[in-house]
Amino acid sequence: MSGDLEVSALAINVTIPEALRWTDTRRGEAFTLTTLNVRLLPDGRLAAKAYGRPAGGGRGAYVSFPVPDRPELAALIGTAAGRAGTLWAAHRGLG
Length: 95
Description:
95 residues; alpha+beta; 5 strands; 20% helix; elongated
């Protein structure tokens, strides 16, 4: 059965440590990026988007941004993906 099983998505959410967070702007509003969504693509590569809320606070939308090309963020993504793989491999089934 496993040979016929198609898994369409594997994704994890990772909290960005305070020291690695950054601010970006969309439509004139500054957002503080606090979370990464990391996806495992069918070819084995990783893709990531950063998410955050308005830097000024409030109940603004949770908006996605590209992840900057920074070695420390790439390391965070790689480490998180490895940890997720370990957790998935050790699953104990439902319930």
